[in-house]
Structures are given as structure tokens and as C-alpha cells.
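In the previous chapter we treated chains in isolation. Here, by contrast, the input contains two separate entities that must be folded as one system, with a combined length of 619 residues.
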Amino acid sequence: MRSLWDLLNDRRAVVGILIVAVLCIVGLAAPFIAPASPIAQNDVLRTRLLPPFATDPGGMFHLLGTDRFGRDLLSRIVYGARISLAVGLLAVAVSVTLGTAIGGIAAYVGGAVERALMALTDAALALPRLVLLLALVSIWESSFLLVVLVLGLTGWMGIARLVRAEVLGLKERAFISAARAAGVGHWRLFLRHLLPNSLTPLFVAAALGVGNAIMLEAGLSFLGLGIPPPAPSWGNMIAGGREALVNAPWLATIPGVMVVLAVVGCNLLADGARDVFDPATHHPHMR
Amino acid sequence: MFRRIARRLTAGVGIVLFVVTVTFILINLAPGDPARLWVAPGAGEAELEMARRSLGLDRSLVIRYLSWLGGFTTGNWGVSLTQQRPVASIIAAALPHTLLLSAASLLVTYVGGILIGTYQAIRSRTAVDTGLTVSTLVVYGMPAYWLAIMLVLVFAYVSARHGWPMWLRFPALGVASLDADFLSPAERFVDRLRHLVLPLLTLGFIGVAGTARFVRGAVLDTRFKPFVQNARAKGIPPVAVELRHVLRNALLPVITLLGLSLPALFSGTVFVEVIFAWPGMGRVMVDAVGGRDYPIVMATTAIFASLVVIGNLLADIMYGIADPRISETRSA
């Protein structure tokens, strides 16, 4: 198997890594980068809906302008990166854990357990994810934790199928039989031998999942069912900007561009990783 | 073949039942008392109790579930809590709008996606291919609700403000103009089409991008397979090779993709319907979710799940027709 460092030879993966890394740094260093607090308001009538590159009466420069409450858009975008990435990464952590457990157990145990778990997976896959999200989020009071859990609990199915396929393929290989013959226990066999050998497809699926979760979080927040205001989420910023679409089009445009950037970054990373790690897609004409 | 369809159909009914049951349990696990929405502010426990009884909330969960299920399967879908109308008539009014939008966008998605993806694969590694690869990647990363807002901004607001020609100006809301009833049949048809443009563009753009990305990969994979090189070596004209040998095989997985993409399509439809005030199922569901209108939430969930199951079943049947190997090996 090739190492993660080989990713650096793939142009797409490098661009993806750069985008995701920059967004992560922006999110982590938000307090140092943002010129103002994301929820700070000044004299609302004089500072609201300022266009990009405007300076407000107090002498403060707003690179991306201000929203309808006079809050600095750049600061909200920067803090929004923190929320989007946190939701995306945590939600995928939940789905990867759940999917690995379900897919792994199904393949490892086999028989009726496998059939039951895979039937469950197929049934869950048949449900439009947004419909389930809407139902869940509307029932309980929306919060950061709920959004993470709900996205995580509705995103594990693809991972479960993938892990099952991987483990099924590996189970019959000689090194697994050898480990079993050497008396390696079930847990150790699964965690130390089967799982590490399925990591690459899992990585690809997780990268795609992060992009997807970021998009869905913004979507839920856009519908007013995600991260509750005043916390700056790119999704609720788009929703807020929609109300001033004619007079202040930048308010809806810029956060959307950020969502696209984050999703494209994750997808590039996943595409690059798939090509680097999966020998089946290595065409002579593609390298 | 028929046994396979029958088996898939049974599984499909099971899936819908599962989805409905899960939704029912989740709704009833929710904190908060729906009866509270039905009493005046400051009402006492006696009034609440009365509301609960008249809403049927005083019965046990199992009884409520079974009576809902019994009613649902016999066509009695209950009465909406917020609109005081039968759920079935609300759904009957909304479903055609959603089906029209979904079917139109599926058509655009697959025709456009297959054309662009195939073109890219044939011209792979040229400037055009690279340009299209980058654009499809970016468009595929766009959230439907944001693309919808951007299209409204450009083709409804900016175009009106700057006096662009009529064919670049589109209505941003609804399925028909307010004065549609006073138009001639031909004008009414054009009016309907103009209202369809922006919602369809939103779903179509994203769908075409996703499908093109997939088709490009599938065709590229197939073009260098030994049987294709063999066909070329035999002297079959290049166009015939591309159409009969490459495309026919490369597009098989696209049929499966069709079935798998339905949940995402319906999710996109929900956002698009909300933004464009399109009176379809997604909007009905979002409104019902906001108003805790449980009979509607249950019915819309069941319908969406059924549509997905039916779509997958159709994709499966189409796959069996397109690739006879499948049905033979599986039924053997």
C-alpha cells in the first residue's frame, strides 16, 4: 500500500489539502484573524449593510462589508469556518465509527447477523437524508450537538457497506488466517489486522463525507433548523443574506462561495486519494 | 426476472414500513406536548387533557401506531392539524408539482450529464476536458439552496433592474403568474414553462455536473478495456466503437446511479421548493415540520420513501433489461 505522502504527487490532492488546511487554520485561529467579534454590533443604522471595502463612521474597515445588524461579515465568515469544519469533522467521526462497527461486524460475523445489519443499512439508505434530518431536527431543540449527532447518525450507511466489502475481501487472505492460527483474538484481529488494511477507502469516503456534512449543515441552518443564531454558520448567513438579496447581494454570495470552497476542497482530496491508492483506476493515459 | 422483481418489491414494502415506523417512533419520542398547540395560552390541565383526548393522544403508542398504519394502508391518511384539510387531498395537490419538477430535472440531468461526460472522455486531457472537469467539480460542490438564490439574484432581480431581454428574465416564485387564469391556453403554457426555468436550472446544473463526473470516469475506464481495443483492431469504425462498445458498457452503472441518486434529488427538491415557493411535497413537509403537523410529516415521509423504493425498483428492472447477464446469473 502506498503511504499518505504519495498524495503530494497528485495535483488535485495537493490543491484539496491546501484548501482544507487553510480553512482549518482559519477556523482554529479565528480569534487572531477576525478583525472583530462575529456578534459585535455598533450603531446599527450607520453600520448596517455596508458594501465590501467600506469604512464605517467609527473608522473601522470592513473588507467584506457588514450584515443587516452591522456585524462585520469577514469576522462572521472566519468564525463560520470554525463551526462548519467542526460540524463536518465531528459528524463524519460519528458516521465512520458507526459505519465501521456495523459493516465490520456484519462481514466478520456473517450469517443472519450480516443479513439483518445489511437490510438495516439498505433501508436507511432508501430514506431521503434531508427528510430524516428535517424530522429529527424539528422534533428536538436545535443545537450544535444535535446537528453533529443527526448528521453523523444519517451518514454511516455508505461507510458500513464499504467496510463490509473491504473486510469480506480481506477475511479470506492468508495473513488473516495466519494471524488467526497464531491465536489472535477477535478484537485484536479486527482492530489490528482487518481495519488498518481498509483505511484507504475509508479515508476517501470520510473526505467526501466531510464535504457533504458541511453542505448539509449549511442547508439545515439555512432552513433555520441547524446551528441556532447568533452563532455564525455559513448556512444561516446565507439565509440572512437572502432577506437583503436585492440591496446587499454580497451577504448571501460570500458565505455560499465559502461552502463551495470547503466542499470542493474535500472532494478534490477524496478524488486524489482514490486515484493514488486505488490501482484499478491507474490508467496509463491518466498519469 | 419476475421472481426477482417480486422479491425486490417485498423488500421495498419492508423498507417503507421500516422508514414509517422509525419516523413514528421518533415523532412520539419528541419532548413537548402537541396538545399544547391546541389550547389557548394559559389553559389548565383540564383543557389539555380534553385536547389530548380529542387528538387521540391519550391512547397508548402501539394502538396509535397500529391505527395510523391501518388508516394509511386503506387510504385514510387523517386530517392535517394545521390546515384542517384531509392529508390525502393536500398530498394530491402537491405531489404532481414535485413529480413534474423531479422528472424534468432527471431528464435534464441524464441527457446533459451523459453528453458532457462522454464528450469529456473522448476528448480527455485536452483543454476543454480540463475546463469542464473544473466546472463540474465546482458546480457539484454548490448547495442547491445557494445556487437557487444566485439564479434568482441574476435572472429575476439583476435582469429586471438592468432591463435585460425577456428571454433572460424569469419569475422567481410559484408555478404560475397571478393573472394566469386570464391568459389564453398558449400563453398560460408559456407562463408555466417560464416559472419552471429557474427551479429546473438549479436542480439540472448540479445534477448534470454530478452525472458528467461519473460518466467521464466510466467511459474512460471502458475505453481502454481489451474488448474495446479488440473491436478497434477488427477495423470497426471509431464512431461505432464508441457508441456500441464503449457507451453501451460504460452506461450500465449509470442506471444504478439513477436509482441511488433519487434521495439526493428529493433533498434538492425540498430546498428548491422552499426558495421558489413551489407548492410541492418538499414545501408541504417543511411547513408541516415547522408546525408539528404530524399526520402530514408521516404521510410525506412515507411518500418520499415509496418514491425512492419505486425508483430503485425501476432502475433494477432497467438494469436487467440492459444487461441480461445479471438476471441470468441471479435467477440461476
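The first helix of chain A runs from residue 11 to 28. The CA atoms of residues 106 and 117 of chain A lie 6 Å apart. Compare these points with the single-chain example from earlier in the chapter.
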